[in-house]
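Z., the sequence and structure:
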Amino acid sequence: MPADLDRFLALVRRELGADEARVLEPGVEPAEDPRELVCRIPDGRGVVARFAEPPADADAKKRRLEMLASTFDTVVDEVQARRSRPPLARSLRDELLGLCMRAAAVNTVVIDANSPVVWGAAYPEGVVAQPPLASSSRMVETPANDAGEAEPHAAVVSRRAVQAVRALPELAALPRGKHVRHVERDGEAPLLAHSFATIYVLVVVFDAPFDELRAQRALIEALPRIERLVLALPPLDPQPHAGAGVLRMRRPRRR
């Protein structure tokens, strides 16, 4: 919380014209000093404003300090709330897992239509790079397993589905405001794909003929939450990854 605390103390200094401001921990008593004004807050901590000289309008400044101190709990609550929220990538995966179960699918994957980037998957092993880039929640597609190890069935089917979606000619029209809704009921990679926010595609992957109505209903219900989480991920151009063939790509200019 240092940045939030620094902003709060800077506000106290500015509003009161104090030279210094600090927070006292519960049980710590300040030394009696006419140059300092102290206000306790409900959790036992104290906010101290120190002046170069004893303030002439001490009563007015004390009331102002009490008003500012009353907002300190809000600052603490907001910081604790942010700390308690799960990371965006984890929240996105939770949503994708939920959609996967409700649609009775093998996997759910969010891809970037303009590059080889995969933003997330319910079951990422073999579909996205492991581990993801440290500086971003984005993940990049990996090639097939070359180590001779047995791959998860979901990984094999998911890669086929992603390749099938990337081959759709409709993807080229996404930057012009078009939408993609594609269904493959049979074949090696049955899937349901929906575009959102111009450059992303949510792919629901199956390994057998599926209940399209059930899958469509689950996708439509989950899509707004998934879209919010994907748009909140930190922006970062795809970085080269061994074997992934990732290229930096410019987004087309709007006309």
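Confidence is low (pLDDT under 50) at residues 130-144, 237-255. The two ends are 44 Å apart (CA to CA).

Let me know what you think.
H.
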